[in-house]
Structure formats: C-alpha cells, structure tokens
Amino acid sequence: MSDSAQRLLALQTDRSFIVQAPAGSGKTELLIQRFLALLATVELPEQVIAITFTRKAAAQMRDRVLAALTAAAREERPGQPHRLRTFELARQALVRDRHLGWTLVEQPARLKIDTLDALNVWLAQRLPIASGGIGAAHIVEDASEYYLTAGRRMMQQLGDGSPGARALRFLLEASDIGAGRMVTLMAQMLATRDQWLPHLFGANESELRVLVERALRRSIEEDLFAVAQLIPEATGRQLVPLLRHVARHAPKYARPFEPWLSLEALPARSVEHLKAWKGLPELLLTGQGTWRKQPAAIGFSGQFATLGSDLKELISSLSDSEELRLALVELKRVPDSLPGSAWWDAVSAIRISLQHLVAELRILFAERNTADFIELALAAQRALGNAARPSDLLLALDRRIQHILVEEFEDTSRSQIRLLELLTSGWEPGDSRSLFLVGDPMQSIYRFRNADMSLFLRAKHEGIGDIRCETLDLTRNFRSAPVVIDWVNDTFTGIFPAGDDLRAGATRFSPCEAVRATSGRQTVEVHGLRGSDPDAETRRAAEIVAAERALSESGSVAILVRSRSHLAGLQSHLRALGLDAHAVQLEAPAQHQVTQDLIGLTRALTHRGDRVAWLGVLRAPWCGLRWTDLHGLCKGDSDSAVWTLMHDAGRIAMLTEDGQARLKRLRAILQMAFDERSAQPLARWVQRTWLTLDGPDCLLESRDMERAEHFFAVLREATVRGDLDDPTALDRLFDDPAAIVDRPRESGIEIMTIHKAKGLEFDTVVLPGLGREARSDQGKALYWHERVHADGEESVLLAPFCAGSDEPDSHTRWLRGIEQRKEYSERARLLYVATTRARERLHLIGQLAVGQSRPRAGSLLAFLWPQVSPAFESAGTPDDTGQQDEDAFEPQLRRLIDTARQREGATVPDEDVERRPHFQWAGQAALQVGVVVHQWLHTIARDGIERWNAERVRAGIDRYGAELQLLGVDEDALREASYRVMQALEAVLDDATGQWILTTRTEADSELPISRDADGMIENLRLDRTFVDESGTRWIIDYKTSAHEGGSIDAFLDSEVQRYRGQLERYAQAMSSIDSRPTRVGLYFPLLRAFREWQP
C-alpha cells in the first residue's frame, strides 16, 4: 500500500492503528487530521483525548487544531494538498460543533489535548482518598534530592535493629561498599520504582522466588532452542567428536567442554544440560564473538591438525548464518546455573531495603506536600483500580472516553502502558472506539526517563491490552533534502540491525523517501580532525556557523551535542566571530557572571566566615579591588574572616588610595545592610544591598538584568526569612540548566543537546564532539529485565548488585550485559535523531588523536566509522595557531570607575583596565585553588567521607570553576584550575592517609577558629583539621595544595616542613590552652599524597 493510501486509511475513525513514521514524515499533522476526523463523529469533544509527552508539544498541537478550526470557520482555504485535507476535516468538525453547540473556537479548553502527567493529575484529583491525596501535591520535576534524602534517612536507621537495618547491614557487608555509595545506589532505584515495584511486591518472597526461577529456566531453554533449531542435524553429529576432543586432549581449554566426555549426541535443551550447550560457542566463536578462524588456538594443532581442518570447514558452513552467531553469543552470556542461596539472600535484603526506602520517600513527600511524576502515575492507577475490580472513576471514564490518540508513542514507559491498558480495559470489539498510536522506534532516546522502545514493537505485534492495532508504515520525508536522506538511508542501514530485537531494545532501520527536489546548497560534510586540542571541534563548529551566516542571514542553524561537557569554549568562539547564539538549557544560571556575583554576595552576607564568597565580593565589579590591594588586605592571615580584616586599620592603611576608597565604600554599605537585616526577607535584603552597591551598573550584557531578576525570584521562592544554613544549597539552586531564563535570539543560531532537538528541524545542523565517549554504566542496586516468551507470557529476571562476593555473579553480569546492549542501541538511535534534524546541510565533526586508528567504542563516531574514515585518513596534524598562547594572556578586571556615587551605564573604559600576572601555578591562581580545596575538604568532612566518591567529586567540576571564577581566576586558566581542585579531592578520597584524616570522629573539627595570646595581642587562627585519635592524641593538620615538579620530592617536603613549622606550632600552642592531651601536628599534601608529621 502506498504512503498516501496509508495516510488516508489512518482517518477511518472506527479502526485502531499504530503508525510507524520516520523523521520528517509529518506525524503531528497526521495526528491532528485524525483528531479533527474524530471530532466529527462524537457527541462531546471531551470524548476524544490526545496525549503527548511534553507541555510544549501539547500546547503546539492544541494551537494547530484551533488554528485549523479557525481557518475553516473563516473559509481560509490553503493551497498545499496536505493542508487542504486538514482544512476539509476541520470544516466537518465545525459542522458537528455547530449542530451540538460546542463552540470550540470560543472554548478551546474543551479540546482534550494534554500530557500524560496532566492526565494523571486529573485522575488523582478525581478520587483523592484512593490516590492518597497526591492530586493536591506540588509536583517536583527533578526529585533527585528527595531520593537522596530518603536514602540518607534510611541509612540513619542502620543501628536500630529493625528488619530494614539488618537488611542494609547485610548489603553493606556483602558488597563491601561504603554507606555513601549505598545511599546513591538506593536513591537511583527510586527513579525507576514504577518498573520494579509490581515485580518485587506483587508477590510474597517465596512466590517471587518461584516466579523468577521459572522465568530464568524458560529464558535459558529458549536460548538453547534458538541455537538448536539453527544447527542442522548432520552438523550436530559432526560437532560431538570435536567437542569431546577438546575435553580430552586440550587440558588448557578443557573445562567448558568436560560435560561432552559423557555425551554421544546433542543433549536435551534443558537447564540441566546448559554447561554442555555452552561448549558450542566456546568451540565455534572467538572471545570477541566472531567466527573462529584458527582452530589451533584451542588444541587442534600438530597431530590433530586434520580434526582442525574439519572444524574449520564446519565453521565455514555455518558462518553465513548471522542469526546463529548472535544466538551463540547470547548463549555464551547466559549464567551457568540457577542462583544459589547467597544470591537469594541478597535479593531478599534488597527487597526489604527498597520497601523501607519507598516508605521513607512517601513520608518525605507527605511532610512537604510534594510528589514526583512517578508517584503521580502510581496514584492515578490506584484511583482507577484494575480491570477485574474497576473503580467508579474507571467505569465513568469508560463511558466517557471514546477515542485515545498518543503522539511519540516510542517514548512510553511501562507505567504509561499500564494506564492505557486500564483506560481501554472495558472496550469491546465493534463498539466504534479507537486507539491511535503514532511514533518512530528509531527515535526512542529517553531511556533515562524510563522510556522503553520495545513497548512500541510489542504494541505492533500484540496490541495494548485487548486492543489490536493495525500497522501503518509511512515512508515519505517532507523535511530533508534528497542528499541528506540518501546519506541517512545508506549510513543507518549498516548501523541498525537487520531485524527487531526486543531483548536488546533494538529496532531495524526503515528507510524513507525524499519528497523535496534537489536545489541550492544541500550537502553532508564530514570534518575529520587530528590532534589533542580540546577546543578544535568547537572552534571548527563556530567557523562552519560563521560560513553559513556569511552566505545566508535567514537560515536556521543548530549545533547539537550529546552533553553540556562537549560545548566547552563554543560560546566564546562564536562571540569572537561576532555571532550570538541561543543556548537551550545548556548553561546553568550560575555560569553567568551576574548570577555568580549575586551568589557570592548572598553567601557572604549570610556567612561571614565564607572566605571564598567574601574574596569574590571584594573582586566583583561593585568593589573591584586590585590584586595588590587584595593581597595587602589578606597577607599573612589565612584564618581571620575577611569582614574582620576589612576593619583592621593597619591593613587598610597599606592599601593604595584607590583600594582604600573602594573598600571603605563597600564596608559602609555592607555594615548598613547588616544593621537592617532583621527588618526584611532574605531576597529583598540581598536585592536592596545589590542595588545600593550599584549592581545594575556592573552588568555586562543586555540580558543580565533579566538574569538578576530571575536570581531574586528563585531566592524568594526557595528561602524564608533568615540565613541559609548551608552555603552550597544556594549553589545547587542555580546549577540546573533547566532553570535558566533564556529566550531565543533573533540570530537563528541554536545550541542544544540532541535530546532537546528531538521534534525540531533546522536548515543547517552541526554535530561536534562525535568522538567523545559516553559515560559508562555505574551499576545498579538491582538489575531486572522483563521478558516476553515465545508463547506471549511475560516474566521478569532479577539480579542483585551483590550476591555474597565482591564481584558481580554470572546472573548480574548477564542482565547488566542486556542493559549495556540497550544503551548501545539507544546511542545509535540518538545519532539518527541528530542527523535527521537537518533540512539542507549536515556537518559532522570528530577528532582523533594523532596515531589513533579508530574512534573510541562508546562514541557516536564509532557507528559512522565505515562511512567517514576517509575524512580522517586525509586529515593532517593541526598546528597550534588556534590555541591561545598562555604567555600572551592578559585578563581584565571589571569594576566601577567612580566609587562615590551611582552612575548610569556600566561600560568600563580601556584606561581603567588592570593587567594581572600571567597564569602560573606558583602564582595567584594556585592560591585560589588552595582556598577552594580547603572549602571542599571541609564539606567532605562535614558530610562524612563515606558519602563521597570519585564520581561525586568529578560531578562537581563546574561548581569548582564557578567558585574559582568568583575568586578572580581568569577564564583561560579556569579549566586547569578546576581540574587541579578535582584532582586534589580525588587524591584525598583515594589515599589512606587522606581517608584517615577526614574520618568522622566524635572530637573532630574542620576550619576550627581558635585564638591565642601573642605578646599581649590576640591572634586569631583557623585549623584546617583537628581531631583526637584512638590513642587519645590530639592531631592538628594543615592542608597544602602544592604540586611539586622536578627535583627530589623528599627535599621539597623537608623544605615545606621548615617553612610551616612555626605556624603549626603556634596552632599547637593555642590548642594546648584548652586541651592538655598530647599533640601532634602535620602537613598533608593531597596532590602529592604525602604527609609529614611531628610532635611540637
């Protein structure tokens, strides 16, 4: 059936369809046409429900339906054929509208087009008691902090003797991981609880064991059947002596083949004979899963060479069957046996722990009158009951809902499928009700939101509940130029599998047909780069955009990446070329200077001991203290609060005249602010202080005032009157890119992630960073896999992350492997989505190191390598002209010119620019790295070192950069400085001495202020770390972030001890006045993992 005929068939309102349509095929237009056709058949418009997955998509669809109805009411007949069909359908809907008095144009709210989440809210509100009152709760879009809090609360009960505490202790001992990592693993499970709750708690523990073992047995036997049916009977007879030979004559390889010593033929396809069957892939395949070409490698050499030739010939006869090879690879992964008692003990402990964890989360939600989308969906399903025992609400909806349409069906989750099954559970064949599902499994890229592409494939073959849908496959692409479509068809035919694979979450490739004609500048270009310059790809992307803009001012351009980290330097490269771009939720608010300055001001005002924030306030434009003055103010005193130093007349007298004027003005304004603190809420207090400081005059960009207003709005919402207890909580408020205020620019240049670009189209698409690897799987507390067996029965396979040993067992490795294959398949689909956004031109940019022969396996470039490798063979080694010369860097200090009065305008003339020293690790930047490292070591000690790991440290690199920037570290030095902070913190966590120093103890303090009498003068000191060890000795530790290069490290450490001996002994003397215990002092060097200690 032709594409046109299928589109026409889709408008038959008494039939249910599932429509598979590739990118650019006009899926939304078809859905709108179906919606209008249905309106012409029902008694009430509310009987037709259209469901999308985002509020934006729902609003756009509603607007388009309303626009079609409005155009039909005005008889505005369009010229395009497909729009003419929409127009005619809208006219028919209007006839129904007028006949029944709906007045949809005047009352568009009667058009039921909304998100699944909105539908869940509506359902939960209808029966508040059944849904647990969730319908009235505030919905939290990102509940990750709630999940972590629930995990921490659960961990706090570790010693109370409850079943949950015993289960947690078992898991901690069995897995040998820290409490912090356990909290993280458990918290991550809450983000997918709608998937595992029905499996873990739909039956009691003994029933669960029976179900899982039955599922495991069935799965293994189906894998055995898949191999056996592909091996001809004669080939099976030939295999037996070859398998027996390895068992007898190749002791080095014999173990997997031992069962064949007692077999004369291929055994029964049962779990009992699994070990024998697993000898087949060992014989026929290499360790990489390819057909074996060298039989000698497993004992077929010398006197057995003839047998080796027989094996080689047999493998040659089988090698044309890719299906058999894949089946053997799958068999190789299957666990050797059913799980034992230790495995089930781990499952039981996880089950109990998760039950307590969910309870803690629900208590937390109730305390704060909040809920996440998962809780909302679960509440909606509770409100509906089930098909066997429907609630009154479900019965009422069954009478009301006649037709359901779902857009982007490839992005549905299992809980959403369950909702659709409930809503259609009362439908009967021939009752004129219909289900219409539209999507493209090749564009399913939201596994991190629990989307499961295999649900689309299952719906095609089995329907939804009792509803069977006819399949329609559209092929025409109205979006892209023929050259782009041809390239996509040629490329992805080799990337996607030949057939659908539900277990691996993979779908076959469906090529599309170009509708548009070839014209103008239409191209697909590969830009292969060689070298190690981290900015080379973003610089090339900026150059491509500039070239596009030089040729056309009107075309839309998008730069798409997998993650924010792939965009380092892009905005600065674009700005250098005079280009303004709209970054779509890529830059967190904290990345803008105005927000950083306001965060620093708020932290300083609320925490006088926050040295990082106070130094940032002194360097911010409203004060603009030069480095020489800043150094003069703080010189020789790293312990006193900066606010205290600002009142030291002796220090102030050492500053320049300009520095004194600036500091005194700032001090007077802040003193006035402190005096007025109690009279106003926090946000108003900070805003008033900022205005008094002439903050608006310091703004760099036209949008900065909007960003400042956004800062104060967020601060008002997030805080009540009073100080912030945790300075880092303020940083977290502005770390989310989704919170940024950023409207599209008129330039038509967009920067966004590939996920954000789904559903959009652009004249030119640029894809940098294709050679970057994806994040590796970090593991789960529990793996699960829902399997559909050959007879249609569904079952679930489970595997815990620990089963009584440090290493994951074969069941966990098996399910983890399935998870990794799903991730691999989704990466291919992500690349498809990225490339199909292009209308006219597609630019692919990748970089390999000099001498690197292939891209990394986890990169998008690896998929493209067969097509694009020639571009890299011809790529020369780049020169360094594009890289900024570090020695030539001269940063600028932004500051107000006149500190005496408020002025209009914020421009700083060139003559007021201060030149700072070059970036050197012996200089100012190194000092600021030390300040930030000290601050974070204090945070780690406060949180408990067990709650920190290398992953969490690496995740904070943007925050380290923001704090360094507040301290005045210039942009070109920022990356290395941020990395140095991360390196130091990682070293502490990995170093036994570092762990010992930060271990939680009853008498331990970090950043402890202490004073001593020094010749009649009070000297204020601050101890980096002090504690009492198990032997009763008081330790005083000072951190030094020095990095030594060249020469003897021991000599360097000796010189550092001599340099700081007097300082630490003053600390010990001060401590002796309040603690008489024996004292030892030490210098700890995180970057060197070195420790020197002595008794003063």
Could you characterize the architecture of this molecule?
- There is one protein chain.
- By secondary structure, the chain is of the alpha/beta class.
- It has six domains: 3-131 and 390-477, Rossmann fold, CATH 3.40.50.300; 138-191 and 340-368, no CATH class; 208-333, no CATH class; 523-584 and 746-874, 3-Layer(aba) Sandwich (Rossmann fold); 589-739, PCRA, domain 4 (Orthogonal Bundle); 924-1094, Alpha-Beta Complex (Lambda Exonuclease, Chain A), CATH 3.90.320.10.
- Helices cover 47% and strands 12% of the residues.
- The strands form six sheets. Strands 3-2-6-7-1-8 form a six-stranded parallel β-sheet, with helices on both faces.
- Helix 21 (482-493) links the parallel strand 9 and strand 10.
Compile the SSE list and pairings.
Elements: H1 3-9, E1 17-20, H2 27-39, E2 48-52, H3 55-73, H4 81-100, E3 112-115, H5 116-126, E4 138-139, H6 144-156, H7 163-175, H8 179-190, H9 193-201, H10 205-228, H11 233-249, H12 274-277, H13 279-284, H14 305-318, H15 322-333, H16 341-368, E5 370-371, H17 373-384, H18 392-400, E6 403-406, H19 414-423, E7 434-439, H20 454-462, E8 470-473, E9 476-477, H21 482-493, E10 513-514, E11 523-530, H22 536-551, E12 557-561, H23 570-576, E13 582-583, H24 593-606, H25 611-619, H26 627-634, H27 642-645, H28 649-653, H29 657-675, H30 682-692, H31 704-718, H32 727-733, E14 749-753, H33 754-757, E15 762-767, E16 782-788, E17 794-800, H34 810-835, E18 838-848, H35 860-873, H36 924-943, H37 950-955, H38 957-966, H39 971-990, H40 992-998, E19 1004-1014, E20 1017-1028, E21 1034-1039, H41 1049-1072, E22 1079-1085, E23 1090-1094
Parallel strand pairs: 1-7, 1-8, 2-3, 2-6, 4-5, 6-7, 9-10, 11-18, 12-14, 12-15, 13-14, 15-18, 21-22
Antiparallel strand pairs: 16-17, 19-20, 20-21, 22-23
Helix pairs in contact: 2-4, 3-4, 5-17, 6-8, 6-16, 7-16, 8-16, 10-15, 17-19, 22-23, 24-25, 25-38, 30-31, 36-39, 38-39, 39-40
